[in-house]
Task: structure prediction
Amino acid sequence: MKNLKKRILLLLSLLLVLSVSLLASDREIRVESSIQLAIDQSEPGDVIIIPAGVYEESGITIETARIILRGEDGAVIDGMKGGAHIIVIKADSVQVEGLTIRNTGLSHVRDLSAVRVESASGVIIRDNVFEDSMFSVYLSRAKDSLVERNRISGGGDRESNSGNGIHLFDTERITVRENQIHHHRDGIYLEFAKEVRITDNIATDNRRYGLHYMFSRDSEYSRNEFRRNNAGVAVMYSQEVDMSGNIFADNVGPASYGILLKDIDNSLISNNRFLNNTIGIYSEGSNGVQIEKNLFERNGWAVKIWANSTRNVFTDNAFIDNTFDVATNSRQHYNTFERNYWSRYDGYDLEGDGIGDVPHRPVRLYSIIVERNPISLILHRSLFIDVLDLAERVMPALTPETLVDEYPLMKSPLP
Amino acid sequence: MKTRVNLILTLAFALTTLMACEPGPKDIMIGQDECAHCRMIISDKPFGSQMVSTTGKTWFFDSVECLAAYELTGGLEQDRIHSRWVPDFESPDTWVNAHEAHYLYSDQLRSPMGLNLSAYENRRHAEANQNSYGGEIKAWLGVMQLVNEAWLDGRETIPAAN
Result:
């Protein structure tokens, strides 16, 4: 009797183990011809292996949770420019990896995407190659997801129709890291995003912005590289953005900026390098931004800050060989410049404490003349301008009187 | 004979000059021109709008909502505004006077600044898209009210139509 009980118990536990292992079984399904067919046959936890080959499919919809779509070397999904999304993920904890996904085609009413996530969480998109799609990765109302190590190249040859590389709309807690994005409209775009971390990405040669922030808060982007994007990086209508350790380089053009700050509050810009941009930082209507330990080198304008920007603090930055270090549009201003290094500073340090004894006025009279009359740029490097600048420094009449660094550093504070 | 040719030439010249004097919409350089209100590069042709002053100067905007916000915040004084122009969503090369256009306010047709307004010359086109995508049809005054409430907490007074 006791024995029987034991046996039943054993049987039960065996059954339990079996059912658990069945539930958790990483059942592998190899795609024969249709990826959608394999997905339709899958159960949560399955791994769908896509062997090498070109699969001409689009509108692939994933509604099974916890499945992994894994491409073997040479697996390509080609949307054939059919004007549809290629993969749509509507279930939680789905992974898409190792695939090449290309050719969504274009539309002016629909945001066609190579991979689109709709209202799902725990999604991982990694190690894929995206080519010639309107949008490559599009997360709409996604949460707790990861986009990493993808190589993304946009296709849309018509500017007006091309979309973004990685597009986040109304998302929370997303990590975007180590991706390479080029030739899209915006490399990475965020709209209504919360607690998003964007790190170690490289965005180059995008048609508009390398990174574009809209109406977002409590987010971070750091250690990214933004080069040769048509208009640089735009951070607009957002709060609490942490921007650290990035490189902004070679963003050159009439409306091109390292960073365009428009209506940004309570944010941090630290340890970035701004190299050879038309304008390093352009700030309009931004308040309470701390700008510290940044390098501004060889820019046309290192900083353009409009009078409607207030309570911003510039400290421990190095301004080296910029045509204009600081420009503004008013004699009134409510920002602080303190303890920065200015290669243009020609004061002295008799006390030897590393801080210049004479305050430095970074706004040149010439920059104000240029602001009012752009054509006067042709006078750049003329003796006449040098004399004007000198006279203005001695007796400021047009430059903002209070925009002054009282403690200019004699040496760059940056390593 | 010679005087008559001269007269015709002068008239023709005067006529073309007069015609050229009437301020109107200009082409936006997509991907190059900046929005005068939000500073964003304009890259969506079906939304790029503009305002023309009485002296013929133009201000470009990336969206209908930025055009309205620029007017509401006094970007250009009322008596200096000659006209406002919006692109027909169905054929974006056509400029429509903002006062004569029909607007669809629909979440499913996302605009660059998130207020999701598209403009139409023909009301039937607006209604067709309303059937497909949902939303609400508005006139210019309704657009101004929407932008005022959504972006400016309703604190601006809406200028009378001109």
